[in-house]
Amino acid sequence: MGHPNTSPAMARALKPPANLPSLVQTTFAKARSAGDLHYFPTQVTLLPVHSVPVRLPVFIHVKRPFQLRFSPALANKPKPPPQDTASPKRTFDPFANPAAALYIADVGPSHYLVLNKFAIVPEHFILATRDFKEQTDILEPSDLEATLACIEAFDAGKKPGEDDGLFAFFNCGEHSGASQPHRHIQLLPVDRMRDGLESGAAWNVLADRDDLDSTPFVVFSEQITLGMSGAELHGIYVRLYRQACRAVGERTGLPMGDVAADGPTLISYNMAMTKNKLVICPRLAEGGSVYNKAGEDVGKVALNGTLLAGTALVKNEAEWDALRGNPECLVGVLNGIGLARKSHDEDGVNKL
């Protein structure tokens, strides 16, 4: 950590713009108005999601609000440009030469910020590596330092009375919801994740909740603080990643061996970062089937790293209606996307 008398802004070598919240807001508004990005409005509701049993003095199931959004317009999302026939193994890379209208700012010499061209949450933006690096490789200290630098800048630039900052997430591996091979970490303003919810709604970011360790899926987390160095963050990240790999190996029987701190990932996982927490969720599936009350299969819900914010997205009305009418179906999906929590021991301690 930085010196106790040193502010995060002074300790941080990587410095995004001090006016980051307003810069993201104005860039998004201008790009949307000019038609340079696609924004897909959503309907939203909160679903009660049961956790594994918790013993308070007696065993109970805790109901946590999980945010469900529905965007029918996503079914008509524009297709990416055709694959380059001269380089058949390399798909179109949106982060190789980002459109000027979507560009926000540099973050140090190796990263930059760009708007998400296909936004569900307004002002959704992305931290990408300037040079191509694999999304499926272990993150480097500079990736984590740049992410926390953005969280710090956003926190420092909030307007008076605003409590929420940024939620950052990273999708890694075939079961994580990842869609682009060029390394990038996604950033969502939490205030905009609340759009459509009633004032005072109970939802807040799952990664920061006190009951994170009783989710239907296993996570590994540690507290972090503003001002941490890239090396400190990387040490925490690698420790959590190794715990996740060992847990997947124990549950599935897959040999893990020595888990390296660099190179290709051994598992699929999502990572989330807030100003308080770093979280890793190992993934075994991208999603699961949606059933209505009659037991009919009406579709599939896929989940990426926003599940660590406590959110899910559906794209057709049958799925939307089925999950609202049968919230336990979402619990079933959440039990199946990673390592389901099995039980508690007699002392009420979580077991994997």
From TrEMBL:
The Ap4A phosphorylase 1/2 N-terminal domain, residue ranges: 16-193
Domain ATP adenylyltransferase C-terminal: 214-338
Alphabetical list of Pfam families matching this protein: Ap4A_phos_N (PF19327), ATP_transf (PF09830)
Listed InterPro entries: Ap4A_phos1/2, Ap4A_phos1/2-like, Ap4A_phos1/2_N, ATP_adenylylTrfase_C, HIT-like_sf
Record GO terms (molecular function): ATP binding; ATP:ADP adenylyltransferase activity
Region Disordered: start-end pairs: 72-91
Top-level taxon in the UniProt lineage: Eukaryota
GO biological process, one term: nucleotide metabolic process
Gene3D superfamilies membership: 3.30.428.70
Protein name: Alpha-galactosidase
Organism the protein comes from: Pochonia chlamydosporia 170
Native organism taxonomy: Eukaryota, Fungi, Dikarya, Ascomycota, Pezizomycotina
